[in-house]
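User: I'm writing a short methods note and want a consistent example. For Pyrrolo-quinoline quinone repeat domain-containing protein, I'll paste the sequence; you return only the structure tokens, no commentary, since I'll be parsing the reply automatically.
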Amino acid sequence: MKWDFNGVRDFVMTKPLLYKGKAYFGSWGSEFYALNMSTGKLTWKWKDTSTTRMFSPAGCRPVATNGKVFIVAPDQYMTCFDATDGHIVSRYYA
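Assistant:
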């Protein structure tokens, strides 16, 4: 292992998505992360506004296509992020 990342709030349950040089994963702290795979540095982070861990992005496995990363958390909201900078492209109840 080249690096480690200690910036995760709570813990990670699922395997990360490895896509275009970044590792994407959610934590039970209701956050979703993108790390640079070469350096381990945080590229961007999204904080879910849910007040309960039951709806955390940690409970999902992200997928990606065409420069977008998608998650469907247990709250049944699908969120689409721009893979590069993390801005939300769309979010709706699935």
